[in-house]
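user: can you give me the structure for this one chain? C-alpha coordinates are fine.
assistant: on it. calling the predictor now.
[tool input]
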Amino acid sequence: MVRKWSVSRDQILQTCERKYFFQYLSGARMNSRDHMLREIAILKKINNTLAWKGKILHGIIADYYKKTFARESVSVEEIVKKVRDQIQKDISSSESFLSSNLEERLERAAHGEFVLLEHLCGGKGISMSDESIAHEIEESFGAFYEWQCAEGIDDLVTKSSRCWIEPDIFGKDAPVFDLDGVSVIAKVDLAIEDHLGNIIIFDWKTGKQIENSPSRMSHPELQASIYQLWPHIKYAKELDKIAARFVYIKKENIGFAEYRIDENKKEDVIGRVRRSISRMEYFDNTILGESQMKLGDSPTLALKDLNYSFFSWACTFCQYKIVCKRSLEQ
Protein backbone atom coordinates (compact mmCIF):
# COMPACT_ATOMS: atom_id res chain seq x y z
CA MET A 1 0.00 0.00 0.00
CA VAL A 2 1.24 3.49 -0.87
CA ARG A 3 1.40 5.50 2.35
CA LYS A 4 3.25 8.60 1.10
CA TRP A 5 3.06 10.59 -2.12
CA SER A 6 5.18 13.48 -3.35
CA VAL A 7 5.75 15.27 -6.63
CA SER A 8 9.33 13.97 -6.75
CA ARG A 9 8.13 10.37 -6.30
CA ASP A 10 5.60 10.86 -9.09
CA GLN A 11 8.25 12.36 -11.36
CA ILE A 12 10.62 9.44 -10.78
CA LEU A 13 7.89 6.95 -11.72
CA GLN A 14 7.11 8.88 -14.89
CA THR A 15 10.79 9.18 -15.83
CA CYS A 16 12.19 5.71 -15.07
CA GLU A 17 10.48 2.58 -13.74
CA ARG A 18 13.81 1.09 -12.68
CA LYS A 19 14.79 4.11 -10.61
CA TYR A 20 11.37 4.06 -8.96
CA PHE A 21 11.95 0.42 -8.04
CA PHE A 22 15.43 1.10 -6.64
CA GLN A 23 14.29 4.16 -4.68
CA TYR A 24 10.99 2.98 -3.24
CA LEU A 25 10.32 -0.74 -3.73
CA SER A 26 13.59 -2.62 -3.47
CA GLY A 27 13.65 -2.70 0.33
CA ALA A 28 17.38 -1.93 0.16
CA ARG A 29 19.15 -1.49 3.50
CA MET A 30 22.75 -0.79 4.48
CA ASN A 31 22.81 -4.10 6.34
CA SER A 32 21.20 -6.09 3.50
CA ARG A 33 22.77 -9.50 2.97
CA ASP A 34 22.10 -9.25 -0.75
CA HIS A 35 25.08 -7.45 -2.34
CA MET A 36 22.98 -5.53 -4.86
CA LEU A 37 20.47 -4.38 -2.25
CA ARG A 38 23.31 -3.06 -0.07
CA GLU A 39 24.79 -1.30 -3.09
CA ILE A 40 21.43 0.33 -3.85
CA ALA A 41 21.16 1.51 -0.22
CA ILE A 42 24.57 3.17 -0.52
CA LEU A 43 23.73 4.78 -3.86
CA LYS A 44 20.55 6.31 -2.44
CA LYS A 45 22.72 8.68 -0.42
CA ILE A 46 24.88 9.87 -3.33
CA ASN A 47 24.31 13.26 -5.00
CA ASN A 48 25.48 14.42 -8.42
CA THR A 49 27.28 17.74 -8.67
CA LEU A 50 24.22 19.76 -9.71
CA ALA A 51 22.13 18.41 -6.82
CA TRP A 52 24.99 19.00 -4.38
CA LYS A 53 25.41 22.63 -5.45
CA GLY A 54 21.65 23.13 -5.21
CA LYS A 55 21.61 21.74 -1.67
CA ILE A 56 24.41 24.07 -0.63
CA LEU A 57 22.56 27.12 -1.97
CA HIS A 58 19.32 26.02 -0.31
CA GLY A 59 21.24 25.60 2.95
CA ILE A 60 22.62 29.14 2.78
CA ILE A 61 19.18 30.61 2.18
CA ALA A 62 17.61 28.55 4.96
CA ASP A 63 20.33 29.63 7.42
CA TYR A 64 19.79 33.27 6.45
CA TYR A 65 16.03 33.16 7.03
CA LYS A 66 16.27 31.16 10.25
CA LYS A 67 18.52 33.83 11.70
CA THR A 68 16.26 36.56 10.31
CA PHE A 69 13.13 34.98 11.83
CA ALA A 70 14.91 34.62 15.19
CA ARG A 71 15.96 38.28 14.91
CA GLU A 72 19.60 37.32 15.19
CA SER A 73 22.30 39.38 13.52
CA VAL A 74 23.02 38.05 10.03
CA SER A 75 26.47 38.26 8.50
CA VAL A 76 26.42 37.42 4.81
CA GLU A 77 30.24 37.32 4.84
CA GLU A 78 30.19 34.75 7.66
CA ILE A 79 27.67 32.59 5.78
CA VAL A 80 29.79 32.72 2.62
CA LYS A 81 32.98 31.79 4.51
CA LYS A 82 31.25 28.80 6.10
CA VAL A 83 30.11 27.64 2.65
CA ARG A 84 33.57 28.05 1.15
CA ASP A 85 35.03 25.86 3.87
CA GLN A 86 32.35 23.21 3.30
CA ILE A 87 32.87 23.19 -0.48
CA GLN A 88 36.63 22.80 -0.07
CA LYS A 89 36.15 19.94 2.41
CA ASP A 90 33.57 18.15 0.20
CA ILE A 91 35.58 18.34 -3.01
CA SER A 92 38.76 17.22 -1.25
CA SER A 93 36.94 14.20 0.15
CA SER A 94 35.24 13.38 -3.15
CA GLU A 95 38.39 13.64 -5.29
CA SER A 96 40.23 11.29 -2.93
CA PHE A 97 37.90 8.50 -4.13
CA LEU A 98 39.55 8.53 -7.56
CA SER A 99 42.51 6.54 -6.23
CA SER A 100 40.19 3.65 -5.23
CA ASN A 101 38.37 1.02 -7.27
CA LEU A 102 34.55 0.94 -7.37
CA GLU A 103 34.14 -1.58 -4.53
CA GLU A 104 36.42 0.47 -2.29
CA ARG A 105 34.58 3.67 -3.20
CA LEU A 106 31.23 2.13 -2.31
CA GLU A 107 32.59 0.85 0.99
CA ARG A 108 33.96 4.28 1.88
CA ALA A 109 30.64 5.90 0.98
CA ALA A 110 28.85 3.32 3.15
CA HIS A 111 30.91 4.55 6.10
CA GLY A 112 29.81 8.14 5.57
CA GLU A 113 32.69 9.61 3.57
CA PHE A 114 31.46 12.32 1.19
CA VAL A 115 31.61 11.59 -2.52
CA LEU A 116 29.92 13.02 -5.59
CA LEU A 117 28.37 10.69 -8.15
CA GLU A 118 30.83 11.80 -10.83
CA HIS A 119 33.80 10.76 -8.69
CA LEU A 120 32.11 7.56 -7.56
CA CYS A 121 31.79 6.61 -11.24
CA GLY A 122 35.48 7.23 -11.87
CA GLY A 123 35.54 10.94 -12.54
CA LYS A 124 36.38 10.67 -16.22
CA GLY A 125 36.49 14.11 -17.77
CA ILE A 126 35.51 15.71 -14.47
CA SER A 127 37.50 18.73 -13.41
CA MET A 128 36.37 20.60 -10.31
CA SER A 129 37.72 23.69 -8.66
CA ASP A 130 36.47 24.47 -5.19
CA GLU A 131 37.29 28.12 -5.89
CA SER A 132 35.16 28.30 -9.06
CA ILE A 133 32.24 26.44 -7.46
CA ALA A 134 32.39 28.66 -4.37
CA HIS A 135 32.46 31.73 -6.62
CA GLU A 136 29.47 30.45 -8.61
CA ILE A 137 27.41 29.85 -5.46
CA GLU A 138 28.46 33.20 -3.99
CA GLU A 139 27.30 34.99 -7.14
CA SER A 140 24.00 33.11 -7.12
CA PHE A 141 23.40 33.90 -3.46
CA GLY A 142 24.43 37.52 -4.05
CA ALA A 143 21.86 37.89 -6.85
CA PHE A 144 19.23 36.21 -4.66
CA TYR A 145 20.06 38.39 -1.65
CA GLU A 146 19.68 41.60 -3.67
CA TRP A 147 16.39 40.36 -5.14
CA GLN A 148 14.91 39.36 -1.78
CA CYS A 149 15.94 42.68 -0.24
CA ALA A 150 14.16 44.54 -3.05
CA GLU A 151 11.09 42.33 -2.61
CA GLY A 152 11.13 42.71 1.18
CA ILE A 153 11.07 38.98 1.85
CA ASP A 154 13.19 39.22 5.00
CA ASP A 155 10.78 41.86 6.29
CA LEU A 156 7.85 39.50 5.64
CA VAL A 157 9.67 36.75 7.56
CA THR A 158 10.32 39.02 10.53
CA LYS A 159 6.73 40.26 10.71
CA SER A 160 5.05 36.91 9.99
CA SER A 161 2.57 35.35 12.41
CA ARG A 162 3.80 31.92 11.38
CA CYS A 163 6.80 30.87 9.31
CA TRP A 164 8.05 27.54 7.93
CA ILE A 165 11.71 27.47 6.84
CA GLU A 166 12.64 24.18 5.16
CA PRO A 167 10.29 22.41 7.61
CA ASP A 168 10.77 18.78 8.49
CA ILE A 169 8.24 16.44 6.85
CA PHE A 170 7.43 14.82 10.21
CA GLY A 171 5.50 16.23 13.17
CA LYS A 172 2.27 18.18 13.65
CA ASP A 173 3.50 21.23 11.72
CA ALA A 174 4.91 19.24 8.81
CA PRO A 175 3.90 20.38 5.30
CA VAL A 176 1.79 17.26 4.75
CA PHE A 177 -1.92 16.68 4.16
CA ASP A 178 -4.08 13.57 3.96
CA LEU A 179 -5.72 12.36 0.75
CA ASP A 180 -7.69 9.11 1.00
CA GLY A 181 -5.38 7.85 3.74
CA VAL A 182 -2.21 8.76 1.84
CA SER A 183 0.15 11.41 3.24
CA VAL A 184 0.81 13.96 0.48
CA ILE A 185 4.12 15.73 1.11
CA ALA A 186 4.64 19.36 0.11
CA LYS A 187 8.36 19.90 0.68
CA VAL A 188 8.39 23.70 0.72
CA ASP A 189 11.48 25.86 1.11
CA LEU A 190 9.79 28.81 2.81
CA ALA A 191 6.18 29.58 3.75
CA ILE A 192 5.04 32.79 5.41
CA GLU A 193 1.65 33.56 6.97
CA ASP A 194 0.90 37.20 7.67
CA HIS A 195 -1.44 38.60 10.33
CA LEU A 196 -4.34 38.67 7.85
CA GLY A 197 -4.05 34.93 7.24
CA ASN A 198 -2.50 35.21 3.77
CA ILE A 199 0.10 32.54 3.02
CA ILE A 200 2.94 32.87 0.52
CA ILE A 201 4.90 29.71 -0.29
CA PHE A 202 8.35 29.89 -1.88
CA ASP A 203 10.42 27.35 -3.74
CA TRP A 204 14.01 28.15 -4.69
CA LYS A 205 14.95 26.68 -8.08
CA THR A 206 18.49 26.32 -9.39
CA GLY A 207 17.53 24.67 -12.67
CA LYS A 208 16.11 26.03 -15.90
CA GLN A 209 12.71 27.69 -15.79
CA ILE A 210 10.10 25.47 -17.49
CA GLU A 211 7.41 27.05 -19.63
CA ASN A 212 3.85 26.04 -18.80
CA SER A 213 1.97 24.03 -21.40
CA PRO A 214 -1.58 25.05 -22.36
CA SER A 215 -2.50 21.41 -23.04
CA ARG A 216 -1.15 19.60 -20.00
CA MET A 217 -0.15 20.28 -16.39
CA SER A 218 3.58 20.97 -16.15
CA HIS A 219 5.77 19.71 -13.34
CA PRO A 220 6.09 23.20 -11.74
CA GLU A 221 2.30 23.69 -11.94
CA LEU A 222 1.68 20.38 -10.19
CA GLN A 223 4.29 21.13 -7.54
CA ALA A 224 2.94 24.64 -6.91
CA SER A 225 -0.61 23.28 -6.68
CA ILE A 226 0.41 20.67 -4.08
CA TYR A 227 2.09 23.42 -2.07
CA GLN A 228 -1.16 25.40 -2.02
CA LEU A 229 -3.33 22.41 -1.18
CA TRP A 230 -1.26 21.80 1.96
CA PRO A 231 -2.52 24.85 3.98
CA HIS A 232 -5.90 24.69 2.23
CA ILE A 233 -6.61 21.11 3.35
CA LYS A 234 -4.57 20.90 6.55
CA TYR A 235 -5.43 24.34 7.98
CA ALA A 236 -8.72 25.03 6.09
CA LYS A 237 -7.27 28.17 4.50
CA GLU A 238 -9.21 29.68 1.61
CA LEU A 239 -7.51 29.22 -1.75
CA ASP A 240 -7.67 32.92 -2.59
CA LYS A 241 -5.47 33.59 0.44
CA ILE A 242 -2.69 31.27 -0.77
CA ALA A 243 -0.03 31.81 -3.44
CA ALA A 244 3.03 29.83 -4.50
CA ARG A 245 6.08 31.58 -5.90
CA PHE A 246 8.93 29.84 -7.67
CA VAL A 247 12.19 31.76 -7.67
CA TYR A 248 14.76 30.69 -10.28
CA ILE A 249 18.21 31.56 -8.99
CA LYS A 250 21.03 32.17 -11.44
CA LYS A 251 24.13 34.26 -10.95
CA GLU A 252 23.11 36.43 -13.94
CA ASN A 253 19.54 37.13 -12.86
CA ILE A 254 16.55 35.97 -10.85
CA GLY A 255 13.49 34.48 -12.55
CA PHE A 256 10.10 34.54 -10.91
CA ALA A 257 6.77 32.76 -11.42
CA GLU A 258 3.62 32.94 -9.30
CA TYR A 259 0.92 30.27 -9.19
CA ARG A 260 -2.61 30.34 -7.80
CA ILE A 261 -5.33 27.71 -7.98
CA ASP A 262 -9.12 27.86 -7.74
CA GLU A 263 -11.70 25.18 -6.95
CA ASN A 264 -11.71 23.84 -10.53
CA LYS A 265 -7.92 23.55 -10.59
CA LYS A 266 -8.02 21.96 -7.16
CA GLU A 267 -10.23 19.13 -8.43
CA ASP A 268 -7.98 18.64 -11.46
CA VAL A 269 -4.91 18.38 -9.24
CA ILE A 270 -6.54 15.99 -6.77
CA GLY A 271 -7.63 13.80 -9.68
CA ARG A 272 -4.09 13.85 -11.05
CA VAL A 273 -2.68 12.80 -7.67
CA ARG A 274 -5.22 10.01 -7.28
CA ARG A 275 -4.31 8.61 -10.70
CA SER A 276 -0.64 8.74 -9.78
CA ILE A 277 -1.31 6.94 -6.49
CA SER A 278 -3.25 4.24 -8.38
CA ARG A 279 -0.28 3.66 -10.67
CA MET A 280 2.05 3.46 -7.69
CA GLU A 281 -0.31 0.95 -6.06
CA TYR A 282 -0.12 -1.14 -9.24
CA PHE A 283 3.67 -1.18 -9.10
CA ASP A 284 3.70 -1.95 -5.38
CA ASN A 285 1.27 -4.84 -5.72
CA THR A 286 2.54 -6.23 -9.02
CA ILE A 287 6.25 -6.10 -8.34
CA LEU A 288 6.34 -6.85 -4.63
CA GLY A 289 3.14 -8.73 -3.98
CA GLU A 290 2.12 -8.69 -0.32
CA SER A 291 5.25 -10.18 1.22
CA GLN A 292 8.06 -10.19 -1.40
CA MET A 293 10.90 -7.84 -0.47
CA LYS A 294 13.83 -9.48 -2.23
CA LEU A 295 15.16 -7.86 -5.38
CA GLY A 296 13.37 -9.24 -8.41
CA ASP A 297 11.52 -11.88 -6.36
CA SER A 298 7.96 -11.47 -7.59
CA PRO A 299 5.32 -13.78 -9.00
CA THR A 300 4.36 -11.23 -11.65
CA LEU A 301 7.15 -8.80 -12.53
CA ALA A 302 10.88 -8.68 -11.82
CA LEU A 303 13.49 -5.95 -12.21
CA LYS A 304 14.33 -7.20 -15.72
CA ASP A 305 10.75 -6.47 -16.81
CA LEU A 306 10.93 -2.77 -15.94
CA ASN A 307 11.68 -0.14 -18.56
CA TYR A 308 14.85 1.90 -18.70
CA SER A 309 14.34 5.64 -18.99
CA PHE A 310 13.66 7.07 -22.44
CA PHE A 311 15.60 10.21 -21.47
CA SER A 312 19.40 10.10 -21.69
CA TRP A 313 19.72 13.04 -19.28
CA ALA A 314 17.91 11.00 -16.63
CA CYS A 315 20.61 8.32 -16.80
CA THR A 316 23.43 10.87 -16.78
CA PHE A 317 22.38 12.29 -13.43
CA CYS A 318 21.10 9.04 -11.87
CA GLN A 319 23.04 7.40 -9.03
CA TYR A 320 21.69 3.97 -9.97
CA LYS A 321 23.30 3.94 -13.42
CA ILE A 322 26.09 1.79 -11.96
CA VAL A 323 23.56 -1.01 -11.32
CA CYS A 324 21.82 -0.54 -14.68
CA LYS A 325 25.10 -0.57 -16.62
CA ARG A 326 26.06 -3.84 -14.99
CA SER A 327 22.67 -5.34 -15.89
CA LEU A 328 23.09 -4.33 -19.53
CA GLU A 329 26.57 -5.84 -19.69
CA GLN A 330 25.42 -9.23 -18.39
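assistant: here you go. The chain has one domain: 4-304+312-325. The two ends are 33 Å apart (CA to CA).
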